[in-house]
Please model this.
Amino acid sequence: MSTSSSLETKNRYAVCVGINRYQVRDQLIPFLRYAEQDAKDVYALLIGHEFSKEHSYLLVGEEATWEAIQQALTTLLLTKARRDDLVIFYFAGHGVPISINDEDEEAEQEPQSDIFLCSSNFNMQQVVDERGAWLRYPLRMQKLRTDFFELAASRKVLFIFDSCHSGDFFGKHYRPRTSENLATRYIKPFGENSTGRVVLSSCLPHQTSREDERLGHGIFTYHLLEALSGRAGQEVRHDGWVTVGSLFDYIADTAEKPASGQEWCRA
Model:
């Protein structure tokens, strides 16, 4: 019996999330215009590329609570997906940095901080005030990394973030120098033991992600859709395939160019 395994993808699953408005109104999180359409268009594109409609999730607007997103990720990444299945998690919405409120910390210690992806029912004041809420929130980058990205049985996992500060997915120990080129930081593998697990983010840890009225999308997602739909030729290799490498090279080059329409920040 052969012990070798095929690299061919067997099943394809997706969780696509987009949020324009938030249920908790007394917090300083501005509404967005195009995050929900971004998620719908990415979902439609993936379903058109043999992703399972029956076992994929589109969560937009009020449906995109942190509980619903957590359940979708648990179902696909931790339960359903096997070794040679492909799982994509796409998120369009606000990403905000929040430091933990810990009165017992020594004054000379740097406050513990993380990036929070804002679900439709995100309660910023609770997360700021309550240490337990800060630690438990499932869409905090560190928990997304340790509870889902690292624990997935699949060797083929792609997280795509169109949100501010999303380049901080790997935390402070992976933060590159600010002088580095954006293209070198778009995609990072999580080390030797996670071959095929990739993160594609719209901006660096210290940057904001933007949406453009002229494009009708987040700027990053617009170029992502252009590439994956075949409307842009630069990302296609000579053999006709779009790879993760050619994709991030294309987006890094095009998304950094100034947009010409009115812009809104996803921060």
The longest strand covers residues 12-18. The chain has one domain: 12-98+112-218. Confidence is low (pLDDT under 50) at residues 1-5, 174-195, 235-240.
